[in-house]
Amino acid sequence: MELIHGVEALKTPFQQSAVSIGNFDGLHKGHRVLIKQLLDRSQSIGVPSVVFTFHPHPLTVLAPERDLRRLFPVDDLVEQLEQEGVDALVLQPFSRQFSEVSPEEYLQTYLVKPLNPKAIVVGHDFGFGAKRAGKVSTLEDFCHQQSIELNVIAPVSFTEQTVSSSRIRKEIAEGHVEEAADLLGRDFYVKGVVEHGDGRGAKIGFPTANVRLYSETLPKAGVYITSTLVDGKLEPSVTNVGKNPTFLEHKTKTPMRVESHLLNFEKSIYGHEVRVVFHEFLRDEKKFGSVDELVAQIGKDAQKARDYHAKQAGA
To answer: Could you give the CA distance from residue 226 to residue 229 in angstroms, rounded to a whole number?
Structure first.
C-alpha cells in the first residue's frame, strides 16, 4: 500500500481512483463497511482504492479542551488498511489553516485535482470544509456535476445503537473491553516499549513488563485478562492498569501504568516493542493492607487468566 503524507506530496496526480473519506479512528465495524464498498467499487471500475484521512485528528486541533484520544496509534490504521487490500492511504496534515478551507476548495484542491475520483464513498454523517459547511447533499450536487459516482453508507448498528468511535471510547473508559471488541471487530490493545520499572513484581514472584505507551487510549484502572504480543507471538498474560496504590502514594498526577505479567514466560524483553491485548475485565484496582494480601490476590488473578487461556486454546 502506498502511504502519502498529504496530497501535496504526490509527484503526479492519480489518473483515476475510488476514494473513501473520513477519520477512521479505530477502523471499527462501521468503517469497515465503507472500506468494503470502496474496494468493491474500485475493483468494479478498475481503478486504485484510496483512503483519505487526517493526521492529527481534527478535534485535537479544533477542540483541544476535549482531550480526544485516538483509539489506536496511526500506524494501526496503516496496518489494517494494508491487510484489507487498500491501494493507497492519504494522511492529510490537519491544521487550523486547513480547517478554514471552503467545501468547494476542499473538493477541487484536495480530491479532484490530486486523486481524480471516479467514485467516492462516505458515511451518512459526512461533513467537510470550513465549519463542516459541506454536507452529503453538497457532495451529491458536486458529484452529479462532475459525473462522479457517490456511495453514501448508512449507519451500522450493534445492540440497537450506532457503532462509533466515541461509543467505543466510552466502553473502554468503563472497562468494557469485550463490548469494545464487539464494536471494533477485533480486540482492543495498547502498544509500547518495555522499560525497567521498580522491580517489585519480580521480588514478590510476579515479574511484570512495564510498558511505556505509544497508545493514547487506556481502559479504566483495574486488572484484566490479556495477551501480550512479544516478537510476533501472543503470550498469555494478566495486566494491571492503574497507579499501583499498594506501593505508591495515590496522587491525582501519578501517571497510569500498564504492567503485564506474562504467564510461564521467563525471557528478558526490556527494550522490546509489545502489544497488550485486552480480553476481559477481572476486578478494580485496590490498595491492599499488606504485600501478602496483594500476592494472594495476584495469584488468584493469574489463575483466572490461565483458566481463560486454557479454555480458549481448547475451544
So the answer is: 10
